[in-house]
Design a protein that fits this description.
Length: about 280
């Protein structure tokens, strides 16, 4: 029994390696027929067809009819192509390409030019997410929950929760973390997008790009009448509110109401000052 189990495990491992070789050949040489792949792999067409069926079921390859090509008597040749999912299994240099492009943009136009690129990149995401959030006409925290679902569909693995001071939006994955580590303008623009979508000013507390485990955004809750804005002094100043002390401190009282200068007159000031007998 143990020998049989070992053989099954060996066959499966061999199958995985063979299918990886099939996709590598399709990447290197382009679309090919089953017979062409069998010749390059040194196996029978029936064997390679079994692997191609498995790859098709996984969505990694697809079979197409080659226009203008004939095989046998009038039968069109059928070639196998790599799908986008099949290509995604190979190494990519998207981050390097994005960094090179943004470095060129920054050198030419400065930080504002980088922000413009980030806004253009996130415009589509904002539009798609706004459609989902628009169906929720509640408070910002409720809108954040709808936004979390929309961001999860975009690959951000997001979640939202209510806390004592309002709400919190967490993104457990960042598709551009490596690029944003060098260009924080991407995080700035994304934060602004989140604020517009939830309908209130928000504050970023942590980002994956800066080494944190999750991107965390604080969403203030509703404020009662006369309540100071959440977030301390910076939000207080941003809102344009100024507060004055109820009464001046002792130093201020002394400055505002100086004591009168001592009198130089020799005339007694009250009846308690008498001339000695």
């Amino acid at each position: 029994m143990e020998s049989g189990a070992g053989q099954v495990g060996t066959v499966r491992a061999d199958d995985v390696r063979t299918r990886d070789r099939v996709t590598a050949l399709l990447l290197e040489h382009g679309p090919q027929t089953a017979s062409e792949l069998a010749g390059r792999l040194g196996v029978s067409p029936a064997a390679v067809r079994r692997h191609l069926d498995a790859l098709e079921a996984q969505g990694r390859v697809e079979e197409r009819t080659a226009a203008g090509a004939q095989r046998g008597r009038g039968r069109p040749a059928r070639h196998f192509h790599l799908t986008d999912a099949g290509r995604s299994g190979f190494a990519h240099a998207y981050d390097d390409l994005a960094l090179t492009a943004l470095r060129h943009v920054a050198a030419s136009g400065g930080p504002d030019a980088v922000r413009a690129v980030a806004r253009a990149q996130l415009a589509g995401l904002e539009q798609r997410a706004s459609d989902a959030v628009a169906r929720t006409s509640g408070a910002p925290v409720e809108r954040a929950q709808a936004l979390a679902e929309a961001l999860t569909a975009e690959g951000y693995a997001a979640s939202a929760s209510a806390i004592a001071s309002g709400g919190q939006l967490c993104q457990h994955h960042c598709p551009v973390a490596h690029v944003a580590a060098e260009f924080p303008q991407l995080c700035e623009v994304e934060t602004a997008v989140i604020g517009r979508l939830v309908g209130t000013h928000v504050q970023r507390l942590a980002t994956i790009a800066h080494g944190d485990g999750v991107c965390t955004t604080h969403i203030p809750g509703p404020r009662g009448p006369g309540t100071a804005p959440a977030g301390g002094g910076r939000d207080h100043i941003r809102a344009g509110n100024r507060s004055t002390p109820a009464r001046p401190v002792p130093g201020e009282r002394a400055a505002r109401f100086p004591r009168p200068a001592p009198s130089t007159s020799t005339t007694p000031t009250n009846d308690r000052e008498r001339t000695p007998a």
